[in-house]
Structures are given as structure tokens and as C-alpha cells.
Amino acid sequence: MAxxxxxxxxxxxxxxxxxxxxxxxxxxxWRRLPLAARIILWIVFAIFLIWLxxxxxKGRFLKSPFQRIVSSSLQRDVRVNxxxxxxxxxxxxxxxxxxxxxxxxxxxxxxxxxxxxxxDARISPFSLIFGDKRRITQLLLQKGAADLEWSRDGKTNTxxxxxxxxxxxxxEMPVVQRALIAGTTLRYRDPRLFLSADLAFxxxxxxxxxxxxxxxxxGNGTMRDIPFTVRGGLxxxxxxxxxxxxxxxxxxxxxxxxxxxxGTLPGATVLEGSDLKVVATGPNMSLLFDFxxxxxxxxxxxxxxxxxxxxxxxxRFTRLKGRFGDSDLAGKMTVSQLGGRxxxxxxxxxxxxxxxxxxxFIGYDPVQLDAKGSAAVVxxxxxxxxxxxxxxxxxxxxxRFDAIVNYKVRTVRGRNIPLSNIGVALKLDKSLMTLSxxxxxxxxxxxxxxxxxxxxGAPVKTTYDIRLSPTPMGKLLGSWGVEEAGTSGTIKARxxxxxxxxxxxxxxxxxxxxxxxxxxxxxxxxxxxxxSEIDIGTFAQKMFEDKLKEPVQINCGLLAFSVRGGVAAAxxxxxxxxxxxxxxxxxFSFRNESLDLAFRADSxxxxxxxxxxxxxxxxxxxxxxxxxxxxxxLGRAGAGLGLSLVGTPLAGLLAFVDVGDAxxxxxxxxxxxxxxTAQRTTKGEPRDDVGQGTTAKSESGKTDRNERKSQxxxxxxxx
Length: 719
Description:
By secondary structure, the protein is of the alpha+beta class.
């Protein structure tokens, strides 16, 4: 039997030492990875390869594609005439361009939106993908020039890229954390605001350890043809200060108006979340608000400080405090743009308001008030003193903005000014200004008002509705320097007028409406009543009996005027007391501010010696006069003299005897503020002693016939 043949196993090829076993194992591990993981690793490898290529080449080969793609995207001609670099270094994007330029649209007055000899920037790559703000961590800018301009119609601007007919958008600056700037200029033009500004920027190296450099800027410009200058510096922190904030110092000057700003910014171009302090001084706050495109009433010299920050579309002025004239002011204010329209909101308060400082608010010249004090409220026009202010409302200015303002005053400082606790809610909505409510305390009473100034059309229409609640006459007279002892009556009133014109004087000089002052039952100091009557007998009797302060009982009283075309006619003047009835005639004029009134008291009881003649009030608002000697009194004196000559001296007294036949007034129509035709005697009969007086004289010095007719027209009561 043959021996079996045993075959030997195949010889193993000789093993090579080195990388092959490891490569084989790596391939096995790669094949075992999930497909998704292998794709991710390939992407990471590709990104690394791209990064490496860009890092080695500095991305210079991207110059032509960059110009082509960016020009197409912006629809502007974008050029780099020198060196170009675009790569990751190592994580931040490095962008360098020499001779860089972006063209302007054809309508602009300058050919380039932006030019620079060199831009060298480090850009956060994530800010290009996420968020709406481009973040530049470092910026070197040499000999840059930016031109920012709005079109004349205000629809487009030079910095809104893309479609040339696209509506202009607000300027959005990239976030720049640190910057080095050399020889850079900025030009800004806005025809709608009549604003032009030219600024120059440079970086100055600092010598201290906290700040690396100081970006200085300076420039000038005009706004609404008013020149101004501006200068300042931005102290940017160096790299050794983690999270350091930029320190801003700036000053703007226009004539006597000066604004200083100092504080910190999160970044060189970041206003959001800024922490700034503002100091503003000047001769008139209205000049300051002109730069905002807002109209403010004139003020006396002012100085204010405030904290300032930007939150979204709002500029917020908080912890505002300071003085204007001799008055203080504190509160807060925000300025924003809503729908392209300026909106000012403010909550303000004054602890002590000097009465002279109120003058400029209603149209008096603040310069004259500073020079002459209260005497400046009176000026001479056509040889007559004038008190009502005639400064015109700045109609075009108030049409450019809206406002919501709440203002409170604790006390008012002034001679014989019994006002306190003033509160006003002002709203300006597309040229309609309302002061509603406007309230204040007056001598124990309360005044509430609603005033509207409608400038939406021409001419301006103003409505006054002023209401005085029952107020103690004693306190009111006492605040004006009159002894109040023995006076316990009250007074209430209402003024309801509508006029046309752009000043206080014009609106009142053309006004129509009604004025009424009501005196409910009460008592008044006897001396005042008797002197007004010129009842010499009764006055002398009380004087010798030591009863000068005996109260005179008032049953009811009404001083009412119907106003037509700025001329007020008595409708009626009627005061009923326990012993007499006082009636009045005449009126006054808002046109030339003249007074033409006559008051007469008729006794209900017999008086041996009574003048029974009117006491006249004439002159002007600013310079009234009292005429105690009337033609009627002279007539009685003449008659008495004649009787003395033809009879006995005692016969001359007959001309001054008052038989006491005055008819008492029914107080219902009086307390209702009714017109003269509705007044009645206590027996219910129509009164024939009111409603027949003349009105104030017109500008020509003659009584207006139409005004006399209008006096007799029926007007609705307003109480």
C-alpha cells in the first residue's frame, strides 16, 4: 500500500514591515463608518483643503469673481484696483482691498458711494450667516471717502443697494469693535431736512495703558440754513482689555447752542445699548429742537443734563433735569421715527415755575423778557398798548412731526398769581394740536380747559373751552392783594371761543363765542360794593358807624359777554344784592384790546344822597382806566346846582335822592348764565335794564353796528 501523500499548506507570502497593515486596518475602519459620518468627514476635509488653499494663496485669485459677483448683487460697479486678499486667518475672515470703490446711482451728486486707498478688515464668519448685523472685529481704513445722500424727493438714497427704484432704507452700519482710521471723510446730504454735513476722521495713537488709540473727528455743516460745527473723539480700547467699551466724547455748536456728549459705546459704530451723558445749553430751546425738525415754543436761556441711549428705533433721554430761565424741569423723553415721521414722547415736571418763563410759551419774546422782565409783555402798536402776544405759530414746523407730552407744575412763582398744580396733556397728531386737559388750581378753585389748534387747513382754527369751578371770592381777592375779610361768596366761570389765525392775538381778534362769570349767593366786603356804586350817603353812613366791613349779601350775579368777530358785548351784566341791583353795559375788543364798560347800581331802598350814575372802565387791557365822574353824574350835579340857585340849598339835594325803586333779579336765569333776553325780575317780568348797552369801539373808534345787532341775538346758555 502506497504511503499517502501529504500536501503542505501554501506558503505565506513574506510580510512587509511598515504602513500596509495599518493602512489596511484604516480602510477597514473607514468602511465600517456609517455613510453619513463619511460624508461629514469628506466635507470637513474639503473645507480644510479650501482653507489651506486660501491661506496659502491669500485668496488673491478670487479678485475677479469677487468684483463680478458683488457688482451684480449690488447693481453697482465694484472695483479693486490694487492688491486683493480674501481668506481665513485662521478663523476670522481677512478682507484686504487696495483702491477699493463702489459707485453711486446716476442721480447722485458724487460718482462714488465709497472709496478707500486700503481696507484691511477681520470679519466674523458667523455674522455673515446668522443675524442681521455684520460684525467686523478689526478695521484698518486708509483715506476712505463715503458719500451718503438722499434724493430730492426723499424716496431713494445712495446706500440702499439693488434695484435703483427701491425705496430708501435707513442706514445700517456694520458692528465695528476696533478701528484704525486715517484720512477718512464722510459727506451727508438730505434735501428734505435741508441738512448737509462734512466730517473728517483720523486716528491718533494714545500714550496711556488703557486705550490703544483715539479716533478723532471734526466737521461742519448746515441744517435749515443754520451753520454748525462738530468735533470729538472715540477712544477705542486695546486688545488687552477683554470686553472693553469705546469711550465717546463729542461737542456740537451752533451759535449760542452747545451740546456735549460723553459716555461709552459697545463698539466703534454701535449705538444700540450705548450709555451716554448729554449736556445741552443755549439761549432758546426751540433752536435746539430745530435740528430734530420739531417746533418747540420759545424759552429763556436753558441748561439741561440727561442720560442717553438708543433702543431699537428710539433715542431715550432719561434722568433729564435742568433749568430754563428761573424755572426747573425734570423728566424723560424719547425721540423716534414711526412710518418715516418724527415722534416725540415726554413726561416732564416742574417744581417751581416762574411766571415770566411762561411768557415765551404763548408768544412773548424771550430776549425782551430777559431784558425787561414782565414789562416786556406790553408793546405799542399803532400808538396803543397791546398785551396779547402776536408771535405766529410755526405751522410748517409742526407739520413735520407728532408729539405726546405730559407736563406737570407744582407751584407758580409770581406776584399775585394764585396758581398751582398745573397739568397739561399735549398731543400733536398730523398738525392737530390739543391741550386736553389743561388744568390747574386757582385760589381754592379748579380750572379745567380743553384747547385745540387745528393747522391741517388754512387758516389755523383754535377752540378755547376754559371752565372755572366754584372758587371762593375771598381767597381770589386775597391773592390779588385785596383784604378778604367779610367775603364768603364764590365765583364760577366759562369761556367758550373759536377763532381763526396763527397767533393768540389773531385767533382771539376773530373769535366768536361766549364768556360768562357767575356769582352764586354769598357776601362781599361792603367797602368794595359801596365804592363801586358811588353811593356816598350809604358809604359815609357806614364809615361813621364803624361798619365798613359789614358784609353785603349777594343774591346772585352774572357778568356775561357774547363775542362776535373778536368784539365782546355785555349780555348781560347783572348783580343782585340785598339792597341794590348792579347792571352794566358796553364791552371790550380783542381786536385793539380796548375797554368800554359802564357799571351802575340802583338801590332797592331809599337813599338821601346817591350818585346813581355809571362808573366807567376804559382804556386798554394793558392800561385800564376808571372813570368815577360820568356825564350822568355831572348832569345830576348841574341839576342840583340849578335847584340850589332857584330854591334853597337843601333843594339841590333832591337831584341826588334815590327813591329805591330798583327791581330785584330772578336768580334762576342768572345762575344758568342765560343771555340778557332771558333775564327776569323777581315778579317774572322781562328786564328792561340789561342787554341794551353798547359794545366796545372798533378800530376806527366807532361802535360796530353789526356788533350792536349781534348783542341782541339769542345765545344758548353755557352752564
